[in-house]
Amino acid sequence: MKRVLFLFCCGVILLAVPAMAQNMPKMKEFRIERGMSEQAKACINCHKAENPGLFADWTMSRHASANITCLDCHQADPADKDVIKEHFKQYERSDTQWGRPEYKVPIATAVTPKDCSRCHPDEVKQYARSKHANTNSIVWKIDPWMRKGMNNAAERQSGCLTCHGTALKLDDKGNLDAATWPNVGVGRINMDGSFGSCTSCHTRHRFSVAEARRPQACGQCHLGPDHPQIEIFTESKHGAIYDSFGESYNWDAAPGTWTAGVDYRGPTCASCHMSGTGPVMTTHDVTERLSWELQAPLTVRPQDFKPLPAQNDWKVERDKMKAVCTQCHTNTWVDNHYVKLDKVVANYNDIYFKPAKAMLDELYAKGLITKEGFFDERPEVEFYELWHHEGRRARMGAAMMAPDYAWWHGFYECKHRFNHFREMVEEHLKSGEKFPLWQPYPGSGGDTTPPAALNLQ
Ligand code: HEC
Ligand code: HEC
Ligand code: HEC
Ligand code: HEC
Ligand code: HEC
Ligand code: HEC
Ligand code: HEC
Ligand code: HEC
């Protein structure tokens, strides 16, 4: 706040401080530069009264100190599909001096990567090719919950799409449709054709790099039984160091200057996957630096991942990740870590995944389970959990130095699941008895048409 006030202290008008809300300690003073357009001042002043929290957040942002206003991000072309028509009513108000027609501007609520690209083209270009931005297309290509309609709209909206992103649309009144908004999922389908929401990691209206460098920024989505990266991080030595020393890390280092060993002594998710360090450049494409697709049923190289083949070479990407590690470790330490990871990948693929897949295929071939719905027969669910839950935990745990996830939540559970699965399959293969069909499958019947913007029909 001090810096903001300082930057604005020449040529300013002082605003009247509105009556304080009872539970607000004291409204801060904010001086608005004369150089701003009247329309921009109207946004700020009216919203300062309407949403003091939102306003305060903006005043603390780097944007505010660089004189970037509400208009720079929210102003829309009158012909844009996402103009909020209801908002025009704000310019017919007589209860505030800022509600006058001369301040009227068409606005869009969603501020998309395309809007940010005006000033941040590199970040947006990288983001656009990432799996984050393209996740909806991947999900609609491969996921049985969506493809086969095994869950319903309420379950999707409150779960899947909150992390992966909805397809925004307006309702009849010209407001954002309740079935699609609020939403800041990583692959949100925006009405201007762009994908994603930069606020997944940089929440509005601070848009802070410090926030995105913290593991919590990622842990809001990267958690739970099927992708427990935040739990894995917490278990790792790196996480333990973060817990002990995180308070002294220099989170606010200028973008691109956050330096291993100088600004932090243990890496976070962002240090390893996104932030530039040593010879490695910052990236907004999280598939960079990866040499495996550890989340996939059969572990493959990123360029062999069919729904979205990476346009890079895994060996080059692995070297980038290693260059991050060697800011703090020697080559032997890091090379040996990857030897271990590669063995774990082979172990999972050959001992658990391939044999289980062969058994499932045999059940289909012999007609003992049906191909129509997925999850509506026991072997399908058991097989899914083997690769999607414990099989991922084992691989991710090994990749990010968490032995409890690699073994107790990982391979130990794989063995357990595999034995049950094999026993059940062998019984039915022997008897020739079909597996009972769980019908009706609870909550199934979701719309199986992919959003038009994905061009998948
Ligand atoms: C005279 C007051 C006033 C002015 C001027 C004003 N707004 Fe608003 N705006 C509001 C109010 C009140 C709401 C919330 C309405 C509600 O809660 O349903 C709102 C809502 C919004 C929303 C959210 C719309 C939605 O989908 O819910 C955005 C974004 C927004 N304003 C941005 C702006 C921008 C940008 C400007 C300047 C170009 C601006 N406003 C000018 C009063 C104003
Ligand atoms: C750097 C770009 C940027 C600036 C500057 C900016 N906004 Fe936003 N605003 C966003 C983004 C991004 C969102 C979140 C919506 C999304 O994910 O698309 C948002 C959301 C909103 C919302 C809806 C949020 C809610 O909780 O209801 C309102 C209202 C709003 N902005 C008003 C303003 C006002 C008023 C200003 C100026 C004081 C302002 N914005 C400045 C980018 C910006
Ligand atoms: C009109 C130009 C403009 C637009 C539009 C814009 N920004 Fe910025 N942004 C800037 C400038 C200028 C800075 C650098 C300010 C500084 O260095 O003090 C900045 C800085 C940032 C930072 C770094 C903040 C920090 O803590 O160092 C982030 C993150 C950011 N912007 C995100 C966004 C996002 C996300 C959007 C779209 C929702 C967006 N910006 C839209 C101009 C813009
Ligand atoms: C808590 C947030 C969250 C929820 C809820 C969620 N996901 Fe995910 N999903 C993720 C994350 C994070 C990943 C990345 C996993 C990885 O790479 O380790 C992911 C991965 C996936 C993938 C794999 C993509 C690939 O590249 O192979 C699919 C498909 C998917 N999710 C579909 C769904 C569906 C369908 C639902 C709801 C039934 C759902 N997800 C619910 C966060 C979530
Ligand atoms: C998955 C989380 C994530 C998302 C989503 C994300 N960012 Fe970032 N962003 C980061 C991290 C982490 C950094 C810090 C890099 C560093 O340490 O310097 C960063 C830094 C930035 C910076 C500072 C300059 C730089 O490149 O280091 C800008 C500007 C920025 N992001 C804009 C955006 C825009 C625009 C979008 C949407 C297209 C976006 N970010 C989406 C995590 C994210
Ligand atoms: C709003 C939810 C969300 C947030 C926040 C988020 N992610 Fe993700 N992330 C996802 C989803 C969903 C996927 C799966 C995309 C896919 O494969 O379809 C994913 C995938 C990934 C992948 C795998 C890419 C690949 O090629 O397999 C990495 C690595 C990743 N995220 C890192 C991060 C990091 C680091 C952060 C924090 C700086 C972060 N994510 C923040 C939802 C999120
Ligand atoms: C010490 C560095 C490091 C830290 C810290 C770290 N990761 Fe990783 N992460 C890795 C490595 C190494 C891999 C495996 C890379 C490969 O494929 O070669 C990986 C793999 C992943 C994947 C799997 C991508 C896939 O193949 O599906 C995701 C998702 C991911 N990390 C997210 C995160 C998140 C979220 C955090 C923080 C909670 C985090 N990582 C912390 C180094 C790190
Ligand atoms: C910012 C510095 C930093 C970076 C970057 C970093 N580490 Fe570490 N790492 C440490 C420190 C410090 C320790 C604790 C060493 C000890 O036990 O004294 C550690 C511990 C480890 C351990 C030991 C885990 C255990 O439980 O014994 C492994 C393995 C490891 N790191 C691998 C990596 C790999 C692989 C990367 C890159 C993907 C990486 N580290 C990146 C600082 C870092």
Automatic annotation (TrEMBL):
Annotated ranges, domain Cytochrome c-type protein NrfB-like: 33-84
InterPro entries: Cyt_c-552/4 (IPR023155), Cytochrom_c_NrfB-like_dom (IPR053875), Multihaem_cyt_sf (IPR036280), Multiheme_Cytochr_ET (IPR051829)
UniProt xrefs under Pfam families: Cytochrom_c_NrfB-like, Cytochrome_C554, Multi-haem_cyto
Signal sequence, renumbered to the chain: 1-21
Domain Cytochrome c-552/4 residue range list: 116-186
Keyword tags: Signal
UniProt keyword Transmembrane helix, yes or no: no
PANTHER family: DISSIMILATORY SULFITE REDUCTASE SIRA (PTHR35038)
The name this protein goes by in its record: Hydroxylamine oxidoreductase
Organism from which the protein derives: Pseudodesulfovibrio cashew
